[in-house]
Write a structure and sequence with these properties.
173 residues; 71% helix; 6% strand; 3-stranded antiparallel β-sheet; mainly alpha
Length: 173
């Protein structure tokens, strides 16, 4: 059955999977990232997450409510966590140096596989999107991924804003 599912998967899905593995894999090692890229990736993944909810549960608005609540709660929790001690922001180049982490890869794979599994499940059981528990669970899961992604970026932006503000006041960072 798995081979049949994979055989019916569009080629672009495998390409997207490869791109996400590549992008997430780059996050496993220490890297330098621009301020822009810090914002772009979470926005793109949140868009993919919202698309996942809306494409599967357009007739079930509570799925989006679950998404919003989970995104807000996890976003709040994660945004209050400290950055790793080795994280640095270079104001002159507007870049961050961060230690490697498996979290971005895990989040990307979580969103990707949630979308894939929901797509396969709905194809096999077209009645699933009308199931409130299923819709709310999947919407909440997507929201959790999005909230974590957004909060991780927000923590970096806060670091940049604090450092830019301190440099603006004539203080060394």
């Amino acid at each position: 059955m798995l081979m049949q599912i994979l055989a019916h998967t569009p080629t672009w899905v495998f390409a997207l999977f490869g791109i996400l593995v590549l992008l997430g894999g780059k996050q496993l090692v220490p890297n330098t990232t621009s301020l822009t890229r810090v914002a772009v990736m979470p926005i793109a993944m949140m868009g993919f997450s919202i698309y996942g909810v809306l494409s599967a549960f357009a007739a079930m608005p509570l799925a989006m409510v679950g998404w919003a609540i989970a995104a807000a709660v996890l976003g709040l929790v994660v945004s209050r966590m400290p950055l790793p001690a080795s994280t640095r922001y270079a104001a002159a180049t507007r870049t961050f140096h961060a230690a490697g982490s498996p979290i971005p890869l895990a989040l990307m794979m979580g969103i990707f596989f949630t979308k894939y599994i929901v797509g396969v499940s709905v194809a096999m059981h077209p009645e699933l999107p009308a199931n409130l528990g299923f819709a709310l669970s999947i919407g909440t899961l997507y929201g959790a991924f999005s909230g974590i992604f957004a909060a991780r970026a927000l923590r970096l932006w806060k670091l940049a804003l604090r450092q830019d503000a301190s440099l603006g006041n004539g203080q060394a960072a």
